[in-house]
Specification:
10 helices; 20 strands
């Protein structure tokens, strides 16, 4: 395999001996992937990002886990191994972890789907690293310098496991500004890429992702199963897709025979992608777009007495920090109220949240209390989480919530 020289690191990671507080030790033994700085009692003075953090327990002074030290994060140690059994952190170690992750995705890969998340960060014991596959292109997004010393062996293992022909590296904002590496955001580090827009298939529906400049890795794969279900429920229906981005729900609805689909997003550029994604498929219905602030446009549609058979509201995260939780809950309640007023008789309202700080219990309670207050009769059809390629490995990893509400009048 021939890789770009930019992935090579001259940094040789050291082994650090770590002692934690009783609370921190307990978290590690429970398999939690994060160790915060305040939990560290003892550590080497010369610790650097990427060093192997060997955590020793108070009882018998034996090893209880191994992580990677991150000097630039309040999450100072990110766990990659949470057992007391001795293990060698080498090429074979990372290959085994990647192969285990791949095995979990096999049921999805047996469907008519050529895009999937191969590595889901902490949930696959690869904290701060995401690897998404779009057809034969693998997009690896790095959120921390901890992986720089191990990047070459990880990329080799990803190619070996996935069979991908091309790898694109995407970098978080912090890494883009770092001087600790030679990588560039959007760099093709393995193989070749003829077009930055890569086409792929999602349950028989055609899509595309800009793997060089697109948001995150180019597309959002976590809602795949919800998109499939909404598509199946949209045949011969009118559909409103709010915060549509690249048209995930819209295109599934069109491909499944929706009469009319309206995609609403603040980004005109995203709506153009949604229209292009729609055109990758044959569909009999009409596709409209609305660009602007979702809350204002929803109010406008209500004033125009518009109604839709299916309304999907999938906003971006409203609570990126603890202080935003209360406002986020108010926004979810507001969207549920607006969505209900736009949902036709016997229509379906789908409400989603990707705010990990708003629990699923709180989110579903907000939705149901808001809908009860409207006096309309409704039933909760189902509540869903991430698709199979986004396994949940710890409580904070379960960020996606989606509720389906069917009105009876």
């Amino acid at each position: 395999m021939t890789f770009s020289k930019s992935i090579e690191s001259t940094f040789q990671p050291k082994r650090l001996a770590i002692k934690l507080t009783a609370k921190g030790e307990n978290y590690v033994q429970q398999g939690h992937p994060w160790v915060f700085s305040e939990s560290i009692v003892k550590i080497n003075d010369d610790a650097k990002s990427g060093d192997l953090a060997i955590i020793f327990g108070k009882r018998k002074n034996g090893m209880i886990g191994i992580g990677l030290y991150d000097a630039d994060s309040p999450i100072r140690i990110k766990m990659i191994y949470s057992e007391s059994k001795a293990v060698k952190i080498d090429d074979a170690f990372f290959l085994r972890k990647i192969e285990n992750a791949y095995q979990k995705r096999l049921p999805l890969l047996k469907t008519d789907t050529t895009s999937y998340r191969l590595i889901f960060g902490e949930n696959d014991k690869f904290p701060s690293l995401i690897a998404d596959v779009y057809d034969s292109v693998l997009v690896v997004k790095l959120y921390s310098e901890i992986w720089l010393p191990y990047l070459k062996t990880i990329l080799e293992s990803l190619v070996k496991t996935s069979g991908c022909k091309t790898i694109v590296i995407r970098l978080s904002r912090g890494l883009q500004q770092s001087n600790s590496h030679q990588l560039k955001d959007g760099e093709v580090v393995y193989g070749t890429l003829e077009n930055e827009v890569v086409e792929f298939v999602e349950h028989g529906v055609n899509f595309s992702a800009n793997v060089i400049k697109g948001h995150k890795t180019g597309y959002f794969l976590d809602h795949r199963e919800n998109r499939r279900q909404v598509g199946l429920l949209s045949n011969n229906k009118t559909v409103l897709d709010v915060f549509s981005y690249a048209g995930g729900f819209s295109v599934h609805a069109l491909a499944n025979g929706a009469k009319e689909v309206t995609s609403l997003d603040i980004s005109s550029q995203a709506l153009e992608i949604a229209v292009q994604n729609g055109k990758l498929n044959d569909y009999p219905g009409k596709h409209f777009t609305l660009a602007g602030d979702a809350f204002k446009i929803l109010e406008q549609l209500i004033s125009e007495k518009k109604k839709f058979d299916v309304v999907v509201i999938d906003p971006p995260s409203f609570a990126k920090q603890q202080s935003e939780i209360l406002l986020a809950k108010k926004k979810y309640a507001q969207l549920a109220r607006l969505g209900e007023q736009l949902t036709a008789r016997e229509g379906l309202l789908v409400l989603a949240s990707c705010s990990s700080r708003v629990t699923s219990t709180a989110f579903y309670d907000i939705n149901e209390q808001t809908l009860i207050a409207t006096k309309r009769s409704f039933s909760v059809v189902q509540k869903t989480q991430h698709d199979i390629d986004h396994p949940i490995g710890f409580p904070e990893g379960a960020y996606l919530k989606c509720g389906y509400y069917r009105f009876q009048d």
